[in-house]
Amino acid sequence: MIVVAKRDELAAARDGLSGRVAVVMTMGALHEGHAELVRAARRAADSVVVTVFVNPLQFGAGEDLDRYPRTLEADLALLERDGADVVFTPTPDVVYPDGPPLVRVSAGPLGEVLEGASRPGHFDGVLTVVCKLLHLTRPDVALFGQKDAQQLAGIRRMVRDLDLPVDVRAVPTVREPDGLALSSRNRYLSEGERTSALALSRALALRDVEAGRALLAAEPGVELDYLDRVDSSTFTDDPDGDLIVVAARVGTTRLIDNLLLAEG
Ligand code: PAF
Q1: What is the pLDDT of residues 96-138, one digit of tens each?
Q2: CA-nearest residue, atom 9 of ligand 1
Q3: 163 exposed, middle or buried (CB, 10 Å; 0-12, 13-18, 19+)?
Q4: Has 34 been annotated as catalytic?
Q5: CA separation, residue 87 to residues 41, 127, 165, 183, 229 (Å)
Q6: pTM above 0.85, yes or no
Q7: How far is the CA of 17 from the centre of ligand 1 (A)?
Q8: For residue 75, which phi and psi values (nearest 5 degrees)?
Q9: What tens digit of pLDDT does each residue of 191-240 get?
Q10: Could you tell which of 58, 105, 126, 136 is best to mutate to test the pocket of ligand 1, judged by most ligand atoms within 8 Å of the CB?
C-alpha cells in the first residue's frame, strides 16, 4: 500500500495502477462501514484508491470541524488490512492551494432540503471536493455509502449533469447487531446516548412516517429534526417515495439514518 499526501505523488501512484480503478472517499475515522466500502471497491475493480481528507468546505460555522476525529494511524492499518493500493491523505492546502475555492459545484434544490436545510452550503462543499477528488484520482468507479443517502443522490446528479466519466455505486449501510448505523460520529456518544440513538433505526423499521415520528417524540434524549418519506433521487417529499430519512440530535451529536423501502 502506497500512502501519498501531495498531488504529484498521487499522480505517479495513480499512473502505476493497472486495470480498472475504484475510489473510496473518506474523511478518516474509519470503521467497518468504510471497510465494507473498500471491500466492495476491491470486488468492483482491479485497484483501489482511498482518500482520507477532512474537507473544511462541507462544515458550517459551529459544526464539528475542529473536533472531528482524526485517527490516521488506525485508518491506515484498516486500509492495509482491507486491501487499498493507494491512500491519498492531503492537507487542506494541497486540495485547496489557492484557499477556499471561488468557483464551486452547486447542489441545486437537493442541497436546500432536509440535511441541506439544516446544514446550509454542506452539499456544495461535498460536491466540490468530490468533483476535485474524482479529477485527482481518475477512477473508473466510485463507491459511496447508502448511509449518506442525500450525499449519494447529489453525487449521482452531479455526475449526470456534469458528464463526469465515472460509474457511481452505492454500498448498503453497515449496522451494529442492535441496529445502530455505523458512523464516525458514534464515537461522540456516551453510553446512555448510544442507547437513545437506537431509537432512530427502530423508528425507520416501522416503515411509517407518523409512527416513526411518534416513537422518536417519546424518546427522551432524542431531538428529532426530520423523519420524512422522499424520492431517493430528488429528495423531494413523496408519500409514495422509496426512502424514509431521519435526522436527530442525541446529546450534542447529530445523527442521520435512512431506510430504502424496497429492502426487506
Ligand atoms: O462521506 C464523506 O465522508 C464525505 O462527505 C466525503 C464524500 C468523503 C467528501 O468529503
Answers
A1: 999 999 999 999 999 999 999 999 999 999 999 999 999 999 9
A2: 126
A3: exposed
A4: yes
A5: 13, 20, 21, 20, 37
A6: yes
A7: 23
A8: -60, -45
A9: 999 999 999 999 999 999 999 999 999 999 999 999 999 999 999 999 99
A10: 126
Closest listed residue to residue 21, CA positions, set 45, 51, 52: 45
Task: List the one residue out of 94, 202, 108 whose CA is nearest residue 155.
Answer: 108
Largest Cα–Cα distance in the chain? 55
Protein residue with least CA distance to atom 5, ligand 1: 126
User: Cβ of 33: how many Cβ atoms within 10 Å?
Assistant: 21
Residue 25 Cα to ligand 1 midpoint, Å, equals 6
User: Ligand 1, closest atom to CA 55?
Assistant: 10
Please give the distance, rounded to the nearest whole angstrom, from the Cα atom of residue 70 to the centre of ligand 1: 14
| Contact indicator for 121, 59 with CB cutoff of 8 Å | no
Domains annotated on the chain, with CATH: 2-171 (3.40.50.620), 184-258 (3.30.1300.10)
Q: Which residue matches cell numbers 441545486? A: 108
Q: Is the minimum distance from the CB of 130 to ligand 1 under 6 angstroms?
A: yes
Written as nine digits, the cell of 5 is 499526501
